[in-house]
């Protein structure tokens, strides 16, 4: 396993092939701007893509919130990401929060958001960048940029409509309203609602079930799901053929087939 990146504002726990990243800035409700959380997420994503020792990632918030998005005081004061000329602010967005969006989208392993509290603005978009979202009674979503006279500068309008469709994404984005967990479940934003004290346990159980699969096939499957969003069917099927041919030449494939035929448990090795 390659050296784990040093993180500043988040805690990383690795249990077998599952990593859990807990945002650790409850003082600002885990805001992404004005903290090092963006850098922590980007650095971790790059490490996970370059190291095959982890097969699933969980994101969750420490304290009261999952993630409150942008720091409103910095917006008011015109500091940090929000200070400078229009050209300077645009460049800051590209160098900060948009790096996170690209890093999350390019992650090669499944990502589960255990949404322990409010996920607002860019925090909501971060949850939408994950493959699955689990919530609890404290979960609250809001695509609230319009309420501050701004737009989802992190790409939220791209991610949200892929989850709930254009019409519902438009309504949520144009209104800036808050969504409670029961509605989030109906809209498909949440996979499941748990009791707060069971949320992380369920996320870890689900992550372990994913991580128990053949590591190479799991990563290829994640790539296929992402590619299916942008490729025509013919091109997508060509990609499936190439990935499938690679899988047929792995030792894990032989282990899986032999285990199925002998009705025995299989421990995949990632080779």
Key attributes of the depicted protein:
271 residues, alpha/beta, 2-enoyl-CoA Hydratase, Chain A, domain 1, Lyase 2-enoyl-coa Hydratase, Chain  A, domain 2, 2 domains, 12 helices, globular
The CATH topology of the largest domain: 2-enoyl-CoA Hydratase, Chain A, domain 1
How much helix is in the residues?
A: 40-55%
Neighbour order of strands in the largest sheet: 1-2-3-4-6-9
Give the overall silhouette: globular
| Arithmetic mean pLDDT | 96
Q: What sequence of helices (H) and strands (E) makes up the elements? A: EEHEHHHEEHEEHHEHEHHHH
| H/I helix tally | 12
CA-atom Rg in angstroms: 19 Å
Report the end-to-end length measured between terminal Cα atoms.
Answer: 15 Å
Q: In what range is the share of β-strand residues?
A: 5-15%
Explain this structure to me?
By secondary structure, the chain is α/β, with parallel strands linked by helices. The chain folds into 2 domains: 202 residues, 2-enoyl-CoA Hydratase, Chain A, domain 1; 48 residues, Lyase 2-enoyl-coa Hydratase, Chain  A, domain 2, CATH 1.10.12. It has 12 helices and 9 strands. The strands form 2 sheets. The protein has a 6-stranded mixed β-sheet with strand order 1-2-3-4-6-9, with helices on both faces. Strand 2, helix 1 and strand 3 form a beta-alpha-beta unit. Helix 5 crosses helix 6 and helix 6 crosses helix 7. It is globular, with a radius of gyration of 19 Å. The chain starts with 9 loop residues before the first strand and ends in a 9-residue tail after the last helix. The mean pLDDT is 96.
